Amino acid sequence: MAAQARRIQQATDIAPLPVPNTGDEVQELAETLNQLLARLRGQATAQANFLAAAAHELRTPLATLQTGLDVSGRDPSLPPATRAALAGHDAELARLGRLVDDFLLVGRLGNGAELPVNRRPVALDELLLALADRELPRFRAAGRTLTIALPDDAPTAALTAATDADQLTTLLLNLLDNARKHARPGTGVALRLQAAATAHGPVISIENELAAPLGEHLAQLTTAWYQADPLAPGTGLGLWIAGRLAHGLGLKLEFREEQERLVVTVGL
């Protein structure tokens, strides 16, 4: 029972403890703890359901606002100041859209379930190029650079993996979003693809310079709602979502602190 309790403390699993049929204080303690865990499971489920319902209700008005901004932004008679203001509103709507998507994922993943995986061969170099093209405007708006490095002469098979392209994209978007928000001011983010080799499959890495050493925070980065800096922007959900998606896809997600840099690798 003690070993199971330690597993609960160190993970997101709050499954019931085994109850020994001893008729003494140990059995009573196990039953009491299970009642507490049942309440925690109920609260977690209610929280996840609320987030999912709220996010679902927000999607339609956000989409309507986005369409209105897109139409307004095409007006060639707009003065530069108005066009710049619309661009700022567009960026904020995109941020809200990402937050809503994250809340929907929390609703689906919060009860311990895994998402259905649609595996197919994915050209990772093409996926990363599309991802970088999509994220560049956000990096520029934040005053950061995003560089991408792809293998020059690797065969196509070495840059291909059987995975769910949509879930992998969401995973990488959350990692890039974290790097963009928390990298040391004035520095950029590097996105790299390493071709498959005999000892391993393709590896995607994201690196950024750290504003401060992570230390003991490193091991907690994929904990739900956890923030190394409570005053930093964000909800503390992005890396948790990345970790859950990596687990569901069977990927190896690692965080390392190397010479004042955070190196995140995704092994396929």
From TrEMBL:
InterPro entries associated with the record: HAMP_dom, HATPase_C_sf, HATPase_dom, His_kinase_dom, HisK_dim/P_dom, HisK_dim/P_sf, TCS_sensor_his_kinase
Entry EC number(s): 2.7.13.3
Keywords: Kinase, Membrane, Phosphoprotein, Transferase, Transmembrane, Transmembrane helix, Two-component regulatory system
Pfam families on file: HATPase_c, HisKA
All copies of domain HAMP, residue ranges: 1-45
Domain of life: Bacteria
Any one annotated GO CC term: plasma membrane
Catalysed reactions, semicolon-separated: ATP + protein L-histidine = ADP + protein N-phospho-L-histidine
An MF annotation (GO) of this entry: phosphorelay sensor kinase activity
PROSITE patterns for this protein: HAMP, HIS_KIN
Ranges for domain Histidine kinase: 53-268
Subcellular location: Membrane
This protein's name: histidine kinase
